[in-house]
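Translate structure to sequence.
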């Protein structure tokens, strides 16, 4: 079975690379013997979609083109699938090895390892070990959310998605339809930045609040994807890293060290409590809720009200 699938993938890749015009599903089915042997159109369609996803996962850039008659075709342009000679010095190889270690706790570990093996085959110097430890720096980006992988693939392939999302102030999740732009990690949490089709506005979603399965959808993006710097600024704003004023809170002694690290001032109140002045920006209320009974908001009043509303929503389940 593995040999048959590998042969089928190879034949599909050769067809897509060898054509000068987009080939329709019908033409591809007539050109590949394994597709001709499919028992039904549904069986062929499922097989073709899996094979196409597998080739993209292997790095083949497959374009989807719609002609004037509305028929969809596929091709893999040679100039989009050709890499220049790869030459890496010791420092560049070390950087790649460090990047690969980032993902060793995620399902991307296999892909990262495979990529480094391909670089080795492409001429990476034999005396350079990308996995060699370079000092005390050992990066870790934990990925626990099931939504991470499908969203990462959707961002890469520019595919719209839908999922159920529970806001911190909501008792139950709501459906969202999103054009995903990028995934960013802030304060140990993963966020998706994208265009919310229902609200016709850019939005940021925390992956831990996505419930159920992420479903990919057909169709093209309706909004141009911003550059990566703009996306990061958007996530920073929604995650609360851009602050334009200050908030005053009470914090239980010996707790809330991330808050203490950002505090502009700390004053001991006695009885096991401290008073902190911290930067106040969008998203601070959601962050403060995570510290539960160890935090009491003193001012401003609107921040205190937002935190209380979130706590009540959590209490209601």
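Result:
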């Amino acid at each position: 079975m593995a040999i048959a699938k590998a042969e089928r993938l190879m034949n599909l890749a050769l067809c897509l690379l060898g054509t000068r015009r987009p080939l329709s599903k019908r033409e591809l089915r007539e050109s590949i013997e394994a597709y001709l042997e499919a028992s039904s159109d549904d069986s062929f369609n499922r097989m073709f979609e899996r094979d196409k996803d597998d080739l993209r996962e292997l790095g083949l850039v497959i374009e989807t083109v719609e002609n004037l008659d509305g028929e969809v075709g596929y091709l893999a342009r040679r100039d989009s699938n050709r890499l220049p000679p790869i030459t890496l010095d010791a420092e560049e190889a070390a950087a790649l090895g460090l990047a690969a270690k980032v993902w060793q706790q995620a399902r991307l570990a296999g892909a990262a390892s495979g990529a480094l093996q391909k670089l080795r085959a492409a001429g990476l110097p034999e005396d350079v070990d990308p996995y060699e430890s370079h000092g005390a720096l050992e990066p870790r980006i934990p990925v626990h959310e099931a939504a991470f992988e499908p969203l990462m693939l959707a961002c890469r392939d520019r595919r719209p998605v839908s999922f159920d999302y529970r806001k911190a102030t909501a008792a139950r999740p709501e459906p969202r339809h999103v054009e995903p732009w990028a995934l960013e990690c802030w304060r140990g949490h993963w966020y998706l930045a994208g265009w919310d089709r229902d609200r016709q506005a850019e939005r940021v979603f925390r992956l831990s609040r996505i419930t159920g399965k992420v479903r990919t959808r057909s169709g093209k993006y309706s909004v141009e994807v911003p550059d990566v710097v703009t996306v990061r600024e958007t996530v920073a704003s929604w995650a609360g890293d851009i602050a334009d004023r200050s908030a005053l809170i009470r914090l239980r002694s010996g707790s809330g060290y991330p808050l203490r690290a950002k505090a502009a001032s700390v004053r001991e109140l006695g009885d096991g409590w401290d008073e902190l002045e911290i930067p106040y920006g969008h998203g601070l209320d959601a962050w403060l809720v995570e510290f539960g009974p160890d935090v009491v908001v003193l001012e401003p009043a609107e921040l205190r009200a937002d935190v209380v509303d979130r706590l009540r929503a959590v209490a209601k389940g």
